[in-house]
Design goal:
Length: about 220
């Protein structure tokens, strides 16, 4: 026997393990070749790689994330043992991708503020203030319509956006943007948005803010 490939039934068992963790299968690149089956999570680079070492007659499993560390490796002789590791990896992955990326959010804020700093800190015109109010209303509507929010979450959002509207009356442009990006981050954390939801909100808000500043801001990744 010179080569080996996973059976369809075996690959389906891994599919089911991910499904049980509510991990989206469309988020993966799949490599299925002789002696190797590999799943790579597109957004994070985490992976499960199963190779079959023909001379040694055993499976080698490389996977990321692992229990409390970025990656790990195991060698197993039977498929049930491999599936057990794949199931554990599914849980590790689900836990990891459900974590909000707070540090990346802070970095996105820094990039945004650096980009707009060259625009100065002049106060907004009356017309711009009207536009800001409209954009903040759009952000509030976006949150209310797309996410299942409790009364306390709705109040937090309303209070924070009202404060931004009031701040636009007196604050300079870069000062206001600094606060606005911080408010978006506060809302993400305060209402407990999932990573995908946080990314959606950040991109939506960045698009609106860029319109306020004449399209000078990059969309947040």
């Amino acid at each position: 026997m010179s080569n080996y490939r996973l059976l369809r039934s075996q690959k389906n068992q891994i599919f089911d393990a991910l499904k049980s963790m509510k991990v989206n299968h469309f988020d993966f690149d799949v490599e299925d070749t002789t002696n190797k089956f590999k799943l790579t999570h597109k957004d994070t680079g985490h992976f499960l790689e199963i190779t079959y070492d023909v001379p040694a007659w055993h499976y080698r499993i490389d996977f990321s994330p692992a229990d409390g560390k970025w990656n790990d490796q195991a060698f197993k002789d039977s498929w049930p043992e491999v599936l057990s590791i794949a199931s554990s990896w599914s849980q590790f992955l689900a836990d990891e991708i459900s974590e909000p990326d707070y540090w990346n959010s802070i970095n996105m804020e820094s990039v945004t503020l650096t980009t707009v700093s060259s625009g100065g800190n002049n106060v907004f015109s009356d017309q711009e203030k009207i536009g800001i109010k409209a954009k903040l209303n759009q952000i509030e509507s976006f949150l209310m319509q797309n996410y299942n929010l409790g009364d306390q979450d709705k109040k937090l959002i309303s209070d924070k956006l009202d404060r931004l509207e009031q701040l636009a009356e007196t604050a300079g442009r870069s000062d206001w943007l600094h606060t606005a990006v911080g408010v978006v981050f506060t809302i993400i954390v305060g209402v407990g948005l999932a990573p995908t939801q946080a990314k959606e909100l950040a991109q939506f808000a960045a698009k609106l803010f860029s319109q306020i500043f004449g399209g000078s801001l990059p969309l947040l990744p």
